[in-house]
Amino acid sequence: MARRYDPERRDRIVDAAIKVAAERGIGALSHRAVAAEADVPLGSTTYHFKTLDDLLVAALRRTARAWLDGMAEWERDLGADVPPAERLVALIEEWLAGDRARLELEYELYLAALRRPAVRPIAAECVEEMVALVRRRTADEGTARALVAFLDGLMIQILITGRPFDRAEALAALRGMTG
Amino acid sequence: MARRYDPERRDRIVDAAIKVAAERGIGALSHRAVAAEADVPLGSTTYHFKTLDDLLVAALRRTARAWLDGMAEWERDLGADVPPAERLVALIEEWLAGDRARLELEYELYLAALRRPAVRPIAAECVEEMVALVRRRTADEGTARALVAFLDGLMIQILITGRPFDRAEALAALRGMTG
DNA sequence: CATCGATGTGTACACTCGTACACATGATGT
DNA sequence: ACATCATGTGTACGAGTGTACACATCGATG
């Protein structure tokens, strides 16, 4: 039965997992769903990822990496003369303008850490990297940490309530926090 | 078969659902698990709650109500002379000093709104009530909204990373936001 | 007291799931 | 060329699941 050798199968399975989770939520993640999405037999997903948690962790890793890379790019590109508050508002607007399902997935994966011990270290590491990035533009680390907390809380509120992003409101809060 | 008439069965089922979700996570919610916890036959849970979402929504409603009642009490009791920033820090410390599993459940239910349409309106309503409560002590609604966002983000960060609450850091941020 | 609807109970069905495992195949090193 | 092992494939099993439904029982209404 025409087995094809596929050196990138593992990657493709992770891609499929991300697609399934983005479209149907983490709850819909199953070996079978991912196998179907990747057009691969069931045994293949279980071979590369012994447990579902392994698969979830791999998906989160890739997603977090992309997220952090995007954020690093933002940090690099915006002119150094732009104040931190404005920079962060621009970042939020960029996120909201992009793919919504993708954004929801990112937060769903991130928040899954609340209950899944396997996911916690990755999510925690993600927070630390975000703080480190923001830190480059703030007076101290405490401020950076608070800014990231506000960022997360604001994004979650927007995603949950469906309320439109209020630029002026966010700007006022961010300016207060950055002194 | 000794059927006992039980006018409060519905409530007891909701209690059991909350207990199951608190101990094992929302993912472990099932008609059977709840029925076992409530010491009630399977058919009874499906009779009172046609679908699992109904049960989840009922659990979230009760949890949110308790949460908001606690917050209203906090708003009422603290002296009017205490500045908003200090008040919020006290609230956070109160939350963190309480039952951790309960706290995690509250946020898990709240964040479930991200992906479950049935839960969204309740979570959104919960945000609105929180904003209204905080609003009584702030200059404008935008500030109250920002404070609630920061509150949520901070709590989530603490719950996910396991980092201890940094009073001074939070106080500085809150003071900046409340002007 | 008779009746009827609300409530309670037990069981069965069809389905999905994770996992295990026997077997097939291709790549690689010698 | 051959042996070996990582990788790929198909299938089966047992455990859980939501849901439906037939039947039992109770409270209230007339």
TrEMBL record, chains A, B:
**Could you tell me which InterPro entries the record lists for this protein?**
Homeodomain-like_sf, HTH-type_TetR-like_transc_reg, HTH_TetR, Tet_transcr_reg_TetR-rel_C_sf, TetR_C_31
Q: Does the keyword DNA-binding apply?
A: yes
Q: Name one GO molecular function term.
A: transcription cis-regulatory region binding
Q: Which residues form the HTH tetR-type domain?
A: 7-67
Q: Which Gene3D superfamilies match?
A: Tetracycline Repressor, domain 2 (1.10.357.10)
Residue ranges: DNA binding: 30-49
Keywords, in A-Z order: DNA-binding
The organism's superkingdom is given as: Bacteria
Keyword DNA-binding among UniProt keywords: yes
Name-wise, this protein is DNA-binding transcriptional regulator YbjK
Q: Which organism is it from?
A: Streptomyces netropsis
Q: What is the lineage of its organism?
A: Bacteria, Bacillati, Actinomycetota, Actinomycetes, Kitasatosporales
